[in-house]
Amino acid sequence: MERKQFQAESKRLLEMMINSIYTKKEVFLRELLSNASDAIDKIYYKALTDDNLTFNKDDYYIKIVPNKENRTLTISDTGIGMTKEELETNLGTIAKSGSLAFKKENELKDGFDIIGQFGVGFYAAFMVADVVTVTSKALGSGQAYKWESEGADGYTIVEAEKDSVGTDIVLQIKANTEDDNYDEYLDEWTLRNIVKKYSDFIRYPIKMDVTKSKPKDGDDKEFVEYTEEETINSMVPLWRKNKSEITDEDYENFYQEKRYGFDKPLKHIHLSVDGTVRYNAILYIPEKTPFDYYTPEYEKGLELYSNGVLIMNKCADLLPDYFSFVKGMVDSEDLSLNISREMLQHDRQLKFIAKNIKNKVKRELETMLKNEREKFEKFYASFGRQLKFGVYSDFGANKETLQDLLMFYSSKEKKLVTLAEYVERMPADQKYIYYATGESYERIEKLPQTELVADKGFEILYFTEDIDEFAIKMLLNYQEKEFKSVSSSDLGIESENKESEKEAAEKEYNELFDYMKNVLGDKVKNVKVSHRLKTHPVCISTEGEITIEMEKVLNAMPNNNQQVKADKVLEINTKHEVFESLKSAFEKDKEKLDLYTKLLYNQALLIEGLPIEDPVEFTNDMCKVMV
Ligand SMILES: Nc1ncnc2c1ncn2[C@@H]1O[C@H](COP(=O)(O)OP(=O)(O)OP(=O)(O)O)[C@@H](O)[C@H]1O
C-alpha cells in the first residue's frame, strides 16, 4: 500500500490547523456535521436537476456513534460520497474545498445552504483524534474507498467495502492528557450538547442511539437500560419558519431554550431582511436585569449564525452599549468568515446589520412607550439606567437617539414622565425644565430648595440615580428648553421682590453676611439672602457647573485622586424668625453668631444629604444652644 505525503505546505498548514486555528476543540464536530450536511445538500441539488434521481427525505440523515470501548467516534452520512479522486483532492490537499467548487460549478447562489468554503474544516478532526478513517462510496460509483491518516505524516487510500452511497468517518479518539479530557467526546450527553450548541439547525436529522431506562417488567423499583435512536437536532430554525406560523409561546420557548434569560421576555422582534445583506434575526427585550448586568463581567452580544451554523456565541459588534440588554440571534448567509469561523473578515455586512438592529430596537421601544406604557415602565425599571449611561457616554454622541426614551419621576404627576410630556405641560412663563437631586423621592420632596419652584406651580423632575444629572448635563436642553437644578443660584423665576428690593436687602445685611462668610472660611463661596426659601431658614445652593450631587458622585468614584468641589453658597431666609436672632447676635454677641452660623451651615449640609465634617463639634454646639 502506497503512503502518500501531504504536499509540503499542507503539512505545515495541518500542524498549524491542529494547534492554533480553533480556540475550542469541540468545534471539530461542527465541522464534520457541516460537511455531512453539505454532502446531502449536493444529492438534493442533483435530484432537482436530474430526472433519474429522486430525493426521498427519510433516506437522508447523519448518524453519530460513540464507542467507549474502542475509543472511536463515527460520523456517517448518506450524502453524495467521494470517489477515489475526490478523496485524494479534497482530503489530500488542505485548503481545497470540493464544496466551494460544487457551488461554483452549479452556480448555486441563493437559498442553498452549502457551508464549506475554505477546505480546512475536516482537519479539525485531528484536534481530538490520532487516526481518522474515511470510508466513502460516491453516487453512481460501484466501488468504495478508504482514506486513512494519522495527521501530518500523510494518508493512504485503499479499496473498501461499503454497501450504500455516503461517507463514514471514524475518529480514533486521543488518550486523555493532563490538560485535556478527550473522553468527553465519547460521552452521549456531551455530544448531544455540542450538537445542540453548534449544529442544532442543520437541515437534516442528526441521529444518535441514546441510552434510556425503563422499569423492569412487573417491577417499579428496578430499572433496565436500553437504547433508542433519537434525532438530536431541531433542524428547522425558528427564524426560518413562516412568521404567521410562529406563536408567542414559540418565541418564549426559544428564549428559554437558548437560555437568553430566566425571565419572560417583554418583547420579541423577528426580522427577515432580504436586501443588500440578507439576514434573519430574533431579538428579545428582557424584563428583568440579569444579576451581573451593571458589572464589568456582563458581556453583551447576539449569537451569530452563518447558514444555521453557530459562528459566535456573543457577537458584541451587533449591539451598541446602550442596548446591551438585547438578547437573541442573527443568521446570515452573506457573512465573510475567516477560516476558523470564529471571526469575520469584513465588518461591512456586520455594520449594516448592526445599524438595522439598533434602529429597529429603538423604534420598538418607542412604540412600547406609546402603546404599552406599563410594559415600558417595567423595561425602564430594569434598563433605564443603561439608556441614561448611553446619553452620557461617547461625549453625548447618542443623545438624540435616546432622549425620547428617558423618563423621570415628576413632582406633579407623582409618577414617571417623559421629557416630551414635561415640556408639553410647561406654562408660558416657565423658562426651564427644573430638576432636583437626592437619595429618594421622599427626601427630595422635603428639600427647601424646591419651595419657590413648587410654589410657582412648576413641575420638578426628581433625580435619584447618580447618572441622572450627568446625562442631563450632556443633553443640555430638550426641545430648546434648558435644564435647571432647583439648587442653582439663578432659577430664572421672577420673585415677588423686585430687583431693587433684592439689592437693598443684600446691601442692608452686607456686613452680617461678610462676617458669617468669614466664620465659615472656604467652606462656602458666599453667604447671601435667599429668594427661594419660604418656610426653611437656610439652604445650600451652588454657583457654576458643578452641583452638590455631582460633587458627591465624582468624589465617591474609585481612583479619584483629585477631589472635586462645588462652589457652595449658604442662603439665608431673611423672613424667618431665626434671622432675627442672627441680627441681634451680630449686634450684641459675636460669639453667639459664630455658633449660630456653624449650626445653620451644618443643618443645611444635613438637609442636602451631605456629611458634616465634625459631628462631635456639631452636637456640642447644639448643647451650647440648650444651656
Ligand atoms: N462527509 C463528506 N461527504 C462528501 N464530501 C466531503 C465530506 N467531508 C468532506 N468532503 C469534501 O472534502 C472537502 C474538504 O472538506 P473541508 O471540511 O476540509 O472543507 P470545506 O467543508 O470545503 O470548507 P470549510 O473549511 O469551510 O469547512 C469538502 O469541500 C467536500 O468536497
What fold name stands as the CATH topology of the largest domain? Heat Shock Protein 90
Q: Report the CATH architecture of the largest domain.
A: 2-Layer Sandwich
The CATH C-level name of the largest domain is Alpha Beta
Q: Provide the domain count.
A: 4
Instruction: Estimate percent helicity.
Output: 25-40%
Report the portion of residues in β strands: 15-25%
User: Count the helices. How many?
Assistant: 19
Query: What distance separates the N and C termini?
Result: 112 Å
Structure at a glance:
By secondary structure, this protein is of the alpha+beta class. Helices cover 36% and strands 21% of the residues. The chain has 4 domains: 8-231, Heat Shock Protein 90 (2-Layer Sandwich); 238-372, Ribosomal Protein S5, domain 2 (2-Layer Sandwich), CATH 3.30.230; 406-485, Rossmann fold (3-Layer(aba) Sandwich), CATH 3.40.50; 499-626, Four Helix Bundle (Hemerythrin (Met), subunit A).
